[in-house]
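Curious: why this fold?
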Amino acid sequence: MSENKLKLEDLLGGIKDSDSPKDQIENIAIIGAGQMGRGIAQTVAASGYEVVVIEQSKDQLEKAKALLQETMEREIARWSMTISEMKAILGRIKWSLNLEEAKEADLVIEAIFEDVLAKQQVFATLDEITPESTIFVSNTASLSLTEISKVIKRKDKLVGMHFLNPVPKIPLVEVIREVETSNDTIEIIKAFAAKLGKTAIEVYEYPGFVTTRAIVPLLNEAMHIYLEGLATAKDIDTAMKLGYKFSSGPLELADAIGLDEVLIWMNTLWNSLGEPRFRPCPILRKLVRERKLGVKTGEGFYKYNEDGKIIS
């Protein structure tokens, strides 16, 4: 047996030669069928895994199913996906309202809204119903994994995977280690990320990690520029795209993420770190109060059509 093989076995806890990361992780459950949950489900199913997506209400579940199919149908119209690929992906996804469906999962990915108590409730229940070997993943973008893990026994098996939206297209995922996450868990999750076609960067727990902490001040400053009337939203975004080779301008990016989500990120960083660069711009608070949340509601800094394209 080669030296490299021995090293791999050491990292993954002595897996047999015939085993692979996919063999270890066969059944996957995703908790939450929002924008991120749907994107993760599509990505996981496209990589050949069976996945169950669990939501708490029938209306939300039916809406999620319809939105996922609509998203893939738009990809087919752009010639970036075939009908047979869409059918194969949908065929690997099961939809459920019962958290008990996760009890046989090798890996559970939590993708609900950014609230520590809500995430703790989910993981406390999962801790009771799943085997001790099941790995828990939180898709949090800014919250403390150590705080979330207080309610579970298997702290060594909780890890963060911060996927970026749109999940099927962004080739990056942040793998976040909390205080007690084991090396085995980290290596298994990094191998899983590679199977999904993602480049994983390992991050130690800190408010905002890398991507959220770096992007929030940019979004916030662009919003202040807009609020102060220095330029239109379109010209601010054009300046950043042409001047610095950004693929999206900061205001259209904020709209794509969801302005309510961006506000949560900013509030979390502002409350955690107390630095003025993270204090949410007043225009962001105003738009969120008015439920102008960006692409998902049809209006934010821009107005959008049903396909999510800017119309004004």
